[in-house]
Amino acid sequence: MLPCNPGGHAAYQDTFVSDFLKFYPDPFVLPKSTWDYIVQFWYLDLSQTDSLMQECYSVFGPQPRLPSCMLRSYLLALKLKVTSITVWCRMLRETPLYAILSGFPFGDTPGVGTFYDFSHASGRMTGATFPQKTASLK
What is the value of pTM for the model shown? Predict the structure, then answer.
């Protein structure tokens, strides 16, 4: 199935507000540094990513994660200086703010394999090649 985001960036913002207030009813207790991230990602419109990457997805299979949310999540991980996808997936599962900022419902975040699939799909789109790990025989 192809990714579809009919609401675009406005849908991300609406979902963010409703989910954010569920987990943080008094948002002003969050430190200023956290608000800096929130503001940056609030205005970061990646909705064009969904249409640009449609050719990288099959029409068969389950509904994929939105490419804009996957990319936003990668960017958030980099902003937080998290370089391990495994560690990032754990942080998404444990920290509602990171899941919500990425655009995922808390409790329904992508796993390591989904991030690697997205990485390879974006590489196919740009023509980039990713080095494959190979076992060396001694």
Answer: 0.80
DSSP code string of 82-97: ---HHHHHHHHHH-HH
Angle between helices 67-79 and 32-43 (to 10 degrees): 150
63-66, long-range: CB < 8 A, 24+ apart? 63/1, 63/3, 64/1, 64/2, 64/3, 65/3, 65/104, 65/110, 65/114, 65/118, 66/3, 66/5, 66/103
Tens digit of each residue's pLDDT, the chain (138 residues): 445 566 788 888 999 999 999 999 998 899 999 999 999 999 999 988 776 776 666 666 666 788 888 899 999 999 999 999 999 999 999 999 999 999 999 999 999 988 888 887 766 555 554 455 555 555
Contacts (Cβ under 8 Å, ≥6 apart) of 55: 125
CA distance 25 to 7: 25
